[in-house]
Write the structure tokens for this entry.
Amino acid sequence: MNRAFGLSLSWLRANRGSVPSLNISGRFVNPFDTWRDKTLWDFVRWLWTRTSGNGLPKNAKDLEKTLPLARPHFAILNAFSRPQNQTQGPLSSDDTEYIDYPTAEEVDRENNITVTWIGQSTCFAQMDGLNILTDPIFKRRTVFSWLGPERLRPVPCQLNELPRPDIVLVSHNHFDHLDADVVKQLGNSVTWFVPLGLRDWFARQGIYKVRELDWWQETEFSLPGSKTYRIIATPTQHWSGRNGFDSNSSLWCSFLVKSPRASIFHCGDTGYCPVFKAIGDKYGPVSLAILPIGSYQPRWYMCHQHVDPDDAVKIHLDLNAAHSIGVHWGTFMMSDEHYLDPPNDLALACTKYNVSHGRFTAPQFGKTLLYPL
């Protein structure tokens, strides 16, 4: 199901913000002419021809040097959180990582956004008093403790070490973006924002504080005695499924969180398509975009579902993002590129498209970043 439902860029511009998702016979489909469904033969061909190793060093010490971990700046994260969300007890951060940072007492909470990359597409972000967790996974392997790709490096912190999130954004239901253990741990203490068709899965886990959104649908979220935020589900080009029988029975999406002064865009997984220009035209500029830059080789197989760094920079420009960070790399190896190619290719793409240094970076695991509004 691809070109029969193709949408041209001019059509998207003419109808921006008015096209919901497409569901045919109980399965969601990608309505973009940049999509192509994969066949079993495509998968077998990839397995037959794929390279092995991804350039990973055999020595764990070498991997520690090339993919170093930082401890989040817990004091700053607490400073940006409401008292009821703050982490209890002293938690240490590596002072050498934050030598040029303001202290928690000095940091300007009104005019900065924080973001801390945990790994894959899991980020802890803070904006205008709101704590946001994205596509959460903290476990060692993607599926179970004994099944699925294994993390290259440990998580830089545990979930209970972070301030409590107010909302969790789930872009789709793949195991590396939705950890059932995290769902059970957070439960109904947070509000979950998910794409269409995923609410039932949460209900089976006993979670009912869930808001399910279609593409271009938006809702408001308010904190007691605080600000009101807009949460908008926006389209992406991907697919869904947690077993061989539920493929595309739930939707996939990106999310935009807007406060009166700032916005954060969480992409999830996607191939490049014209819809990001439509998102930028309707909702831009974006203060901070969290964009995938990994799992992109070989291109003939991955291009429809995963952007490469070149495509990610195009999305950054389409959204008119002030800053972007590149995620979904260096965590679980599920493609063929060298494990350090994503940040290296991102630097090349930024030069190619004249994106200045610092506007789009590949962060360090666990490092808390501050972005001015």
Summary: Residues 241 and 247 are 4 Å apart (CA to CA). The two ends are 42 Å apart (CA to CA). The chain has a mean pLDDT of 92.
